[in-house]
């Protein structure tokens, strides 16, 4: 399944073309994607009748695409989940997932302006898991049954705010408006490439900053689902930012942060790309 939100309406991208979910289902399912997550098992079974469009197909116009989960009850984000990113940040490899939140008001669509909040705004491309079927104490072996799909996310971070005080305040520094763009589409787990073939990349003005396969994760997605759901009740539509690979500006010498006018592009194999212009 490849699902997009086009002009606010849930739309399947299929080999037959774009199918408005509400119209194609004769009103059985709502146009708003949030309503689909509440009935994900039923919707997934219905959508299985349609063959997903290839990942290489052209997407709708950028200004028509919205976030694939615009109002998640929870956003759980995992820090230092790549060995080399932990090293460049000056931290030891974690023995357990380092978890923080991005507040829901930071969610935005996959394309558009990024308002810089200061001189230390950094990029962090991440694969984001979207929960379809919630629950607690989910076994790692069952994790993919609970995931609606995957999408591209940016965990933008104002480093000055993030590291203001001791201990650091991760959540505030990562939750300014527009600091959590997600999209351009939601791709079901069965349509994703193997982890070693799922490459995350981020460029700034065309310069490659980050590139790593998903297989480099310290804690895999099923492991994260199991560990998180042992504590938190996961809910339909929740977002899990799974971590960023090395190559962030904070880890460079000298440090390198975003400047007005620069274009940030984040992409993941099998999903697509999102893009922001710094203003």
TrEMBL record:
<protein>
    <submittedName>
        <fullName>Fumarylacetoacetate hydrolase family protein</fullName>
    </submittedName>
</protein>
<dbReference type="InterPro" id="IPR036663">
    <property type="entry name" value="Fumarylacetoacetase_C_sf"/>
</dbReference>
<dbReference type="Pfam" id="PF01557">
    <property type="entry name" value="FAA_hydrolase"/>
</dbReference>
<dbReference type="InterPro" id="IPR011234">
    <property type="entry name" value="Fumarylacetoacetase-like_C"/>
</dbReference>
<feature type="domain" description="Fumarylacetoacetase-like C-terminal">
    <location>
        <begin position="75"/>
        <end position="276"/>
    </location>
</feature>
<dbReference type="GO" id="GO:0016787">
    <property type="term" value="F:hydrolase activity"/>
</dbReference>
<dbReference type="InterPro" id="IPR051121">
    <property type="entry name" value="FAH"/>
</dbReference>
<comment type="similarity">
    <text>Belongs to the FAH family.</text>
</comment>
<keyword id="KW-0479">Metal-binding</keyword>
<keyword id="KW-0378">Hydrolase</keyword>
């Amino acid at each position: 399944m490849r699902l997009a939100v086009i002009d606010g309406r849930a739309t399947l991208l299929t080999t037959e073309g774009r199918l408005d979910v509400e119209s194609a289902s004769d009103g059985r399912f709502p146009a708003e994607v949030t309503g689909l997550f509440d009935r994900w098992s039923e919707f997934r079974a219905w959508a299985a009748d349609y063959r997903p469009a290839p990942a290489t197909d052209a997407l709708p116009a950028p200004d028509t695409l919205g976030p694939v989960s615009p109002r998640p009850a929870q956003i759980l984000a995992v820090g230092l989940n790549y060995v080399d990113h932990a090293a460049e940040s000056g931290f030891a490899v974690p023995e357990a997932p380092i978890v923080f939140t991005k507040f829901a008001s930071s969610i935005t669509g996959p394309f558009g302006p990024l308002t810089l909040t200061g001189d230390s705004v950094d990029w962090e491309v991440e694969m984001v898991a979207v929960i379809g079927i919630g629950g607690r104490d989910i076994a790692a072996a069952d994790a993919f049954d609970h995931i609606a799909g995957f999408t591209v996310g940016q965990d933008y971070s104002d480093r000055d705010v993030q590291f203001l005080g001791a201990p650091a305040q991760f959540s505030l520094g990562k939750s300014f408006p527009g600091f959590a763009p997600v999209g351009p589409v939601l791709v079901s787990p069965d349509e994703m490439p193997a982890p070693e073939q799922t490459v995350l990349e981020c460029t700034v003005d065309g310069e490659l900053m980050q590139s790593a396969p998903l297989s480099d994760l310290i804690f895999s997605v099923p492991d994260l689902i199991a560990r998180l759901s042992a504590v938190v009740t996961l809910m339909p539509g929740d977002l899990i930012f799974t971590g960023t690979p090395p190559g962030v500006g904070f880890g460079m010498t000298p440090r390198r942060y975003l400047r007005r006018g620069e274009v940030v592009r984040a992409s993941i194999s099998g999903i697509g790309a999102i893009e922001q212009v710094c203003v």
